[in-house]
Amino acid sequence: MAEACDKDTLHRSAAGQNQINKVLEKGIVPDVIQAVEIERITRYGFKDLFNAYGYDSGIPYADQINPKAELYMSSYLQNHQRQLLELKEYSLPYFKLIEHVFRQYGLPPELKYLAVIESHLKVSATSHAGAAGPWQFMPETARRYGLEVSKGMDERRDFFRSTHAAAKFLLKLFREFNDWLLVIAAYNGGEGRVYQAMKKSQERNFWNLQHYLPEESRNHVKKFIATHYLMENDVKEKKVNTGLHWQSPLGTRKIGQKEIDSMTTLTISGKYMASIIATTIEMIPEEFDRINPDLDLLLEKTGQYDLLLPENKMKIFLSRKYEILQACVQQILKDSDTPSPKTLRPDKPVH
User: Fold this and answer.
1) pLDDT tens readout for residues 259-290
2) CB 166 within 8 A of CB 187
3) d(CA 175, CA 177)
4) What CA–CA distance (Å, rounded) separates 39 from 225?
5) What is 82-94 written as a DSSP string?
6) Per-domain residue ranges for the chain?
7) Which DSSP symbol is given to 267?
8) CA separation (Å) from 8 to 3, 184, 198, 248, 275?
9) What is the pTM of this model?
């Protein structure tokens, strides 16, 4: 019971908020006890993204992500998946450094993906507006969080120091919004725009106020969600010599790269059936099976499948996802209720 209560109240914990205040007021790195207190409230900052408040790498992604985020992921990854997968190959040392720093501040490790969408982890990154470094700090903000920005020195481009500054800035934003999706929107567009959206919408939930935010800030959140999904999942894309141009962890599709690029991918889990999906989204079964071979078999075997669909069909699937799943489960139950044929013994008459 205590843990259940924690989920509803810890993000407002006075002790945790006091520790955040101390860090922000004194500009210090928290000690271990402070970091633990902070983590007790920040860990639930993804309450509007994941069903259990935070991400659990031991549970299939599709089973814990907020359904409202799925369309965000599919639309962004359609155009950026290859670039992100290339970055994933060399990002591990950078992510370890960020996680090490964020752990000292009690921040969720997922926030490391913010540096990906800000700069692709490049210390040389510079925006047209003058933001620089992996965390894309403007000079004034950088100085506010302890970085030197002068003609002879620009610590925005120091990966280690700028990550410490980013941790303090993120804590400051979290103290204001208590929701990491709103924090990411504010990191991009400023706190003022998020407050305006909250005032106009009378909401504090990102999904309910998103359309009151500038499009760029909404897209920043979308990029974060899609990047988190791709980096945390075992998604692979490559060309092979057999003429098959798409290989996922769950099977090989006989489909060319040009056709793949025009489609959307979504990892699904559950008791889905290919025939019911195809019928519901009004797709010819043979065509569905061509781009999603062995869906029934691999779902049963592994528990997951990378569903590949044209964008218009994916939108139908997402809008009717639970209706489809319910129909599949009902069909499975119906099939299991069918009595198996009885073996007749020749010495017993049939009535």
Assistant:
1) 777 888 888 888 889 999 999 999 998 889 88
2) no
3) 6
4) 21
5) HHHHHHHHH-HHH
6) 2-232, 246-336
7) E
8) 9, 22, 21, 38, 41
9) 0.64
